[in-house]
Amino acid sequence: MSERIPVDKRFWDKVDKTESCWVWTAGITGDGYGAFWINGETLHAHRVSWMLSYGFDSIPNNLIVDHICRNRACVRVDHLRLLDNRENVLCGNGITAANIRKTHCIKGHEFKGKNLLVEGNRRRCKTCIRNRRKRKYHAAKISNMSTFSSA
Description:
two-stranded antiparallel ribbon, 5 helices
C-alpha cells in the first residue's frame, strides 16, 4: 500500500510560484478557478490556499475568498481577502458593479436627491422619466390633431 501524500504537499506541488501571482497548474473549472479534490469533494483552489494558511475553519459561512489581483487561477494568499458577497460583487467588473458606480444617468442627470427614483434594486432618473412622459404626451396630442384635421 502506498504512503498518503499530505494535503499541503499535494496542493503546493500544483502551484507555479515563478510570477507575482501563484498560478494553479492543475484542473481549472469552466469559469477559470483552480479545482482541488480534498476529502471527497472538489473545492476552489484559492479557498484551499486560504484554509491551508489560516486553518480549515477560517472562512465564515457568510464570507467568500476574493482575488485582489482579479486572477481566478491565483492561489497566493496575500492576493486573497475575505469579503461578503455584496462587497465582492461591487469590487468586480460585472454589470451590477458598473451600474452601482454610476453617478449620473445616460443623459447626464445626477442620481441624487429628488432626481433619484429607486425601484427594487434599480435606480432611475426622474428628470428623464418626466421628459419621456412629456414627449409621449405631445406626440399623442399631435397625432390626435392630425386625425381631426384630415376628417
